[in-house]
Amino acid sequence: MTAIPFDLSRFGLSLPPFGAPAASNAEVNQRIADGTATVVTLEELCRSAQDVAGSVDLVTLAFPTSISGSAAMLVVPVAGRGVFTRAEEIFVNRVRGHPGPAPNERLGVVDTLIFADEPESGSGSGSGSGSGSGTGYDGSALFLDLIGGKRIEVECHSVEETVHRNEFDLAGLEFARFYVYNARLPEGADTLAILGRSLVPGARIALNGAQGIVVGSGTRDRPGAMCLALAADIHGMDATLMENPGARPRHMVACALPVGEAADLGPLAEWGRSSAAEPLHGAPASKAAAQLKQMIRQNRFHVSETGPAGAKAVKG
Fold it and tell me: 183-234, pLDDT tens digit by residue?
């Protein structure tokens, strides 16, 4: 049987071919596996750039970014198999979700897309989880509750005009993923060759402590404002990295930059010491960068070895 190619161009999309493994990253990964890779955080580099020049394989850094430019796709357990056919409305801790177009409801679950900025609704019986219900509770607060291990309430209205209620936690979800469509890096990031070379589509990152990938440029990427689009599994995320006392939760993005040559380190350290890079030195960012360094040392995080052939750097 001859396969019929699917023409993505009809939808304004394209899927670039994948090229051969990048030898330098493969060598770095071999050193990670052997336990011989030299990894420093950006803060360590800034303190001792001259001491480590020429001997570093990877530099880890982390930056906070607004949670507004993100959504979560959850496969929410609602009822038993065959109880209803389609979800018409769904509320998760009183936050309205958007049921997916490919129905799984006969299996008792609902594919649910929830936006970070979706406010608590007057419908649904969930009470929030104490993170501001009735006083600004929204999708971002729901995400923090979910990642923090709290029980979450769901109310689903079916096309049969029946109402179904259930509770779940993150451990009970078979699928839970963040899609961040506008993660903005600090000012000046687009001027650094090492960042542009490293953060290409397919590059591995850590989002709130869980592994994910760079999908491409963010929705508001432009000269002087380098933004990324990311995807990551929500399971294994660290709620403490998202906490932002007195304000809404935020995402914490960590990346490991392969050092192609010693000349990469000077500009990176200079930028790291500048006022533009202050968000990279806050306590949560420092913690995330250190966590990623530890993951590398434990052989639990490798840099990407493949990517789109001739991939262009993600630039502002």
Answer: 999 999 999 999 999 999 999 999 999 999 999 999 999 999 999 999 999 9
Residue 101's pLDDT is 77
Helix H or strand E segment including 51: helix 49-52
The pTM assigned to this predicted structure is 0.85
Domain ranges of the chain: 37-67+177-297, 76-174
Angle (CA) 211 201 65, round 5°: 60
Rounded to the nearest angstrom, the gap between the alpha carbon of residue 239 and the centroid of all alpha carbons in its chain is: 13
pLDDT band at 314 (very low <50, low <70, confident <90, very high): low
Which region holds residue 171: left if phi is over 0, alpha if psi is between -120 and 50, else beta?
alpha
**What gap in Å lies between CA 218 and CA 180, rounded to an integer?**
8
CA angle 230, 231, 232 (to 5 degrees): 125
Position 308 pLDDT exceeds 90? no
Task: Give CA separation, 132 vs 53, 83, 109, 135, in Å.
Answer: 48, 33, 27, 5
Mean pLDDT of the chain: 86
Confidence of residue 69 (pLDDT cuts 50, 70, 90): confident
Q: Would you state the structure tokens that stand for residue 6, as one six-digit string? A: 């699917």
Count of beta carbons in the 10 Å neighbourhood of residue 297? 13
- Rounded CA-CA distance 112/157 in Å is 13
Closest Cα partner for 118 from 178, 68, 168, 177?
Answer: 68
Nearest to 48 by CA among 264, 265, 256, 261: 265
Three-class DSSP category at 30: helix
- Is the separation of the CB atoms in 295 and 200 below 8 Å? no
Label residue 311 exposed, middle or buried (CB < 10 Å: 0-12, 13-18, 19+).
middle
CA–CA dist 274, 166 (Å, integer): 50
- Residues across the chain: 316
